Amino acid sequence: MYRKQRNPNEPLSIFLNGGVGTWKTYTLMKVLFIFTSIVFLLDPSKQIVLKMAYIRKTTYNIGGSIIPSTLSIPLNKLINDFKPLHDERCDVLIKKMHM
To answer: Is 11 helix (H, G, I), strand (E, B) or coil?
Structure first.
């Protein structure tokens, strides 16, 4: 499990990686449960979690969504074709996180 957070004002990002059958989904669900419990106790208005995975089965298991569709990344484009997200799309993603 990899945790990246540079300063307290930045969102917490967790990257979980491993082979098949290494309890990634179980670990993620436990971390999310503990994290959301602590955040809810400290400040209920800041309980925002966006769960994404690259594989459909995993997204189903964690109750999340697929990374490319959530971030509007077309799968048939080259990396050089990517453009920054427009403010409108960013607003949609922020609204999804507050649901």
So the answer is: coil
Domain of residue 48: give its range.
2-97
Q: pTM of this prediction?
A: 0.55
pLDDT 10s digits, 7-30: 766 777 777 888 888 888 899 889
Exposed, middle or buried by CB within 10 Å (0-12, 13-18, 19+), for 53? buried
CA dihedral of residues 15, 18, 22, 27 (deg, nearest 10):
0
Half-sphere exposure of 83 (CA within 13 A, CB side): 3
Which residue would you say has higher pLDDT here, 13 or 87?
A: 87
Give the residue among 44, 58, 47 at the shortest CA–CA distance from 99: 47
- What was the pLDDT predicted at 34? 86
Question: How many domains, the chain?
Answer: 1
